[in-house]
Write a structure and sequence with these properties.
Structural class: alpha+beta
Number of strands: 5
Helix content: 25-40%
Oligomer: single chain
Shape: elongated
Strand content: 25-35%
CATH class of the largest domain: Mainly Beta
Order of helices and strands: HHEEEEE
CATH architecture of the largest domain: Beta Barrel
Number of helices: 2
Number of domains: 2
Length: 129
C-alpha cells in the first residue's frame, strides 16, 4: 500500500500545483479587471480617436443619459450615452443638432461627447475661450 501511494504522490502534487496555479491566475485576472467607469472612458476615447463623424440629433437628457439618433449608410441608429462623468462639458439644453462619432467597424458604437471632443453645438452668446 505504501508503494502505491509513493507512485501517486508526484502526480497528485503536480495536479494540486496546477490547480493552485490556475486559481492564482484567475484571481489575478479578476483583480486587474478595470472598473466600469474606466472601461467606458476608454471606449469613448477609442471612438474619438478612430471614429468617423456624421450629423445627428440629440433628443433629450434624462438624468445622466443623453439620448440621440443618427444615420450611417442608410441605417438609422438610436443611442444613449452615459454622460455622468462629462456633465461639466454639457450645455444646459443639449437637445438639437449634434455631431456623432462612430466606429466604422461597428456604427452602433458611438459618442456625442468625450473628454477630448464634443459634438454638441455651442450655446448662443457663449464666449469662445
Amino acid at each position: 500500500m505504501d508503494h502505491t501511494l509513493a507512485i501517486l504522490t508526484p502526480a497528485s502534487l503536480a495536479a494540486v500545483a496546477a490547480v493552485s496555479g490556475m486559481a492564482a491566475l484567475v484571481q489575478l485576472v479578476l483583480l486587474k479587471r478595470r472598473p466600469p467607469a474606466e472601461r467606458e472612458k476608454r471606449r469613448r476615447l477609442e471612438v474619438n480617436a478612430r471614429g468617423r463623424m456624421v450629423c445627428g440629433m440629440a433628443l433629450e437628457l434624462q438624468q445622466d443619459v443623453l439620448h440621440y439618433s443618427y444615420s450611417v449608410g442608410g441605417a438609422e441608429y438610436s443611442a444613449a450615452q452615459d454622460v455622468s462623468a462629462l456633465r461639466h462639458l454639457l450645455p444646459p439644453e443639449p437637445a438639437g443638432p449634434v455631431l456623432v462619432k462612430y466606429l466604422p467597424s461597428n456604427p452602433a458604437n458611438s459618442i456625442v461627447v468625450c473628454e477630448q471632443w464634443s459634438g454638441l453645438r455651442k450655446q448662443k452668446g457663449a464666449s469662445a475661450g
